[in-house]
Design brief:
heterodimer, A: about 325 residues, 15 helices, about 70% helix, globular, B: about 500 residues, alpha/beta, Rossmann fold, 6-stranded mixed beta sheet
């Protein structure tokens, strides 16, 4: 008979790596290098790039998308997705237009936008959690539904004539070159970073995304977590609708067309696993800057929009594929 | 006597000799032998974990034996792939036969070896004709064109058997073929087995049910703990002798069970019922008690346990903790009430393998380690270290993913995770299934330490030595009901097997 090891207490260390090592080896560090690289390239490519006001303008390329991307990141980490976000913007903006035409002032208009977004999120979330439907199918459906309502209301017309105070959200500056949208972006980055990385709720999000069954056995209310995330995504879409409508000064049913994929691109570029379970908010923040810089840099070089989207697509595939390629090459040796 | 090969019932078609199969930490097969004769049914008998599934996988080319030889018609052969075993005329009908729901019956029968036209395309007409022929030969009235998903489980079995026949099998392995069938369907299956026998096929029949073994088998082979115990003709053996061969090992593993001092009732369950899974389950669990739940796979043990923690809803029944009636609708409420369940399926239900050890351990206890909903990593590490060390976890650090650990250490993490909630009742579902002996000992040791400290344990196990060695009392479940409650001298390997298999006769043991 073999001897069973006699049991001695051995101390298991908490971690083997230091925080610095973890940061240096992280996806976020690599992405930050890419961002710096693009920044340097841009400054060589155009003499107009290194100008505080131009750079400030560039931030509008990503601030609204990033507001949604934070909530979307949590949703994707939890293993779900919301493709209806751009259509929520259209519907929320339309409701805001109706409220404005009914003679209400800026506070009610903003509230209407936020509430519409939230309700759209509840609708998506209830369909997914109560009826156990796949979120990709549900939100492709509501993508058509929400924007469809907007088209019915507006036809080929538009809402114009928003009150002048309303312009503050999308056109105002908090101080010097720092726009109001930029401040909202920064605040949300901090809030979502804390929620995902420092709270019990954030831990539950990772648990649900990695293994919803084991999470359920562990006493996590999986449905409640998912519903909350859909509501947050809807609310953020409502907020983005407020900012975008304010910036454009009008509502058309085609507002924010195709934005859902740019949001998802930002999230994935930020290192969030599209299959759920992993990703960070700092990653999404850096990805937002990378996308903004690329768009702005190419714009300064008068590159047409269609080429820009080719560029973003190539960047996405490149940044996602390269680390895996390196890992595979390493593995072969 | 002249060897005529095929028709000679005295010469085995297939012989296995000295087969050894080693897995990390486990010797699944330890020099076993098995012989299958043409036109005869050989029953393979053994407890869960005796090595029955491993031998089937060895025969069908899924596993390669580490030692020993396979003789087909007396010639040594090797089956490097499932295809090779199929080509040699060996086919298996598994517990969950691999069929394709979206394909037609004929396509299922001929997938991989469909008749071809001159142009290399599948000859549908020919395929349908031959499918019809085979189905007729076993008396099945199934339309070859119907999609498989539209058939019931019994008809699917017939399709699987037809598929076995379509490749002109000489050896047919039936692995618990009656597990999901109704009484009438079982009768039909018996007739089919007779047909196959008449066609001269050698049949290996794996079953836990003694009545059906005695009904249709001609020979038996018994395995125990991966070893060959005995073989012979059914006519020469009694039920009692078979049971003893199956379980007759001396309980030589040392179980660290201490004689417990039982306290007041902690958990009382009355009349728990479910429309399909279990019926009228009731028992009382006392403080410091280890209550074993024994039964065959499918007896409804896990389903019942999961209803106790609010995953499946019972249609009837009352659950009392102490003197209070509790209604548990979700695992979260079960944790609150002080009753936790360590699931059998570690990878899917127990652990989140991609997440670090400490986060797995603290997941159900986050309310305790956090402050106002904010994580406190230092507290988490403290809790995780405390409980994993008590279970003697072996890991590089608490920050590595659980998936990087061995099965035994994963199980320790899962148990630590539930104990960290400081429950009053812990339900362990097959706590040592598939883990190495060292980890088993650590789990058993800890279990009895906990009971001694006043925790009440429900241990679901299919391993008789574990039930015998660890429980103060054992409940045997069969087909969703309590078949027996055994204690003291009544609790023996023989009584456990008898009640679990539903043997009523008191044959000499």
């Amino acid at each position: 008979m073999t001897m069973v090891d006699h049991i001695k207490t051995r101390v298991i260390p908490d971690r083997l790596t230091t925080p610095t090592e973890r940061i240096l080896k992280s996806w976020e560090a690599l992405l930050l290098l890419v961002a710096v690289g693009i920044f340097i390239l841009n400054s060589f490519a155009s003499p107009y790039f290194l100008n505080a006001w131009n750079l400030s303008d560039a931030t509008f390329n990503f601030t609204e998308k990033a507001m949604i991307a934070f909530a979307m990141a949590l949703l994707i980490i939890a293993g779900e997705i919301d493709l209806s976000v751009a259509s929520i913007i259209a519907l929320a903006s339309t409701v805001m237009g109706l409220v404005m035409q009914a003679g209400f002032g800026t506070p009610v208009i903003v509230l209407a936008g936020l509430v519409t977004g939230l309700l759209c999120g509840v609708f998506n979330g209830v369909l997914v959690t109560r009826f156990n439907l796949p979120s990709i199918v549900v939100t492709i459906g509501t993508m058509s539904l929400f924007r469809g309502i907007s088209y019915i209301v507006l036809g080929d017309g538009a809402f114009r004539g928003y009150p002048s105070e309303f312009a503050w959200f999308g056109q105002g500056y908090a101080f010097w070159v720092i726009s109001v949208e930029m401040v909202i972006f920064a605040l949300l980055a901090v809030i979502y970073g804390v929620v995902l990385h420092k709270t019990n709720f954030g831990r539950a999000v990772y648990a649900v995304g990695n293994n919803a069954t084991a999470a359920m056995f562990s006493g996590i209310r999986v449905g409640r977590v998912k519903l909350t995330l859909f509501m947050l995504t809807g609310l953020m879409s409502g907020l983005a609708a407020v900012c975008l409508t304010s910036r454009l000064g009008s509502t058309r049913p085609s507002i924010a067309s195709g934005m859902e994929l740019e949001v998802v691109t930002m999230v994935v570029l930020g290192g969030v696993n599209i299959l759920g379970g992993s990703g960070t908010i700092p990653g999404v923040v850096i990805a937002a800057f990378v996308m903004g810089l690329v768009t702005f840099g190419l714009g300064l070089l008068n590159v047409p929009g269609i080429v820009m989207s080719i560029f973003i697509g190539a960047l996405l595939i490149g940044v996602i594929a390269l680390p895996r390629l390196f890992a595979r090459l390493k593995g072969r040796k | 006597m002249a060897r005529t090969g095929l028709a000679d019932p005295m010469q085995p078609v297939l012989r296995l000799d000295g087969i050894v199969k080693q897995f990390p930490g486990v010797r699944a097969l330890d020099g076993v032998q098995l012989a299958l004769y043409p036109g005869q049914v050989t029953a393979l008998i053994g407890e869960n974990g005796a090595g029955k599934s491993t031998i089937v996988k060895t025969l069908t080319g899924i596993y390669q034996p580490d030692e020993g030889q396979i003789l087909l018609d007396g010639q040594p052969v090797r089956f490097p792939t499932a295809q090779a075993a199929g080509d040699a005329g060996i086919t298996a009908i598994h517990q969950e036969t691999v069929l394709f729901d979206e394909l037609s019956v004929a396509e299922n029968i001929f997938i991989g070896h469909a008749p071809r036209t001159r142009f290399g395309l599948i000859d549908k007409a020919e395929m349908r004709r031959r499918a019809r022929e085979i189905l007729d030969s076993i008396g099945a009235t199934i339309d070859p064109d119907v999609r498989l998903r539209d058939l019931g489980i019994a008809s699917k079995h017939l399709v699987a058997i037809s598929r076995a026949l379509s490749i002109d099998a000489r050896v047919v392995i039936m692995d618990e073929p009656t597990a999901a069938l109704s009484h009438k369907e079982i009768e039909e299956l018996y007739e089919l087995v007779e047909t196959l026998k008449a066609q001269g096929k050698a049949i290996l029949f794996i079953s836990h049910k003694f009545d059906e073994i005695f009904r249709i088998a001609d020979r038996y082979t018994v395995f125990r703990d991966g070893q060959f115990v005995g073989e012979g003709l059914m006519a020469d053996v009694t039920e009692g002798e078979l049971v003893q061969m199956m379980v007759g090992r001396s309980v030589d593993q040392i179980f660290p069970k201490r004689k417990a001092v039982l306290g007041n009732p902690v958990l009382q369950v009355v009349g728990y019922s479910h429309p399909t899974e279990f019926d009228s389950i009731g028992f009382t669990l006392r403080r410091g008690e280890i209550l074993g739940f024994y039964g065959l796979v499918g007896a409804g043990r896990s389903e019942f346990m999961q209803s106790l923690i609010g995953i499946t809803k019972p249609s009837k029944g009352v659950c009392k903790m102490g003197d209070d009636i509790v209604i548990i609708r979700s695992p979260a409420e079960a944790i609150e009430a002080g009753i936790v369940y360590v699931p059998e399926d570690r990878g899917k239900q127990g652990a989140i393998t991609a997440m670090p050890i400490f986060q797995n351990v603290t997941l159900p206890s986050l309310g305790k380690t956090s402050r106002n909903g904010f994580l406190q990593m230092a507290e988490e590490f403290k809790l995780a270290r405390e409980y994993t060390q008590r279970l003697d976890l072996r890991a590089a650090s608490l920050d590595v993913p659980v998936g990087s650990l061995s099965g035994g250490n994963q199980q320790k993490v899962v148990i630590a995770k539930w104990l960290a909630t400081q429950p009053k009742v812990i339900i362990l579902d097959e706590p040592t299934k598939g883990i190495d002996i060292g980890s088993k000992a650590a789990v058993h040791d800890f279990m009895s330490e906990l009971a001694a400290q006043g925790l009440s344990v429900i241990m679901v196990s299919s391993e008789i030595p574990e039930i015998m060695g660890m429980s103060d009392r054992a409940i045997v479940m069969r087909e969703g009901r309590i078949a027996a409650e055994l204690e003291g001298d009544d609790l023996s390997p023989e009584t456990l097997v008898r009640h679990a298999a539903g043997i009523t006769s008191e044959a000499a043991a």
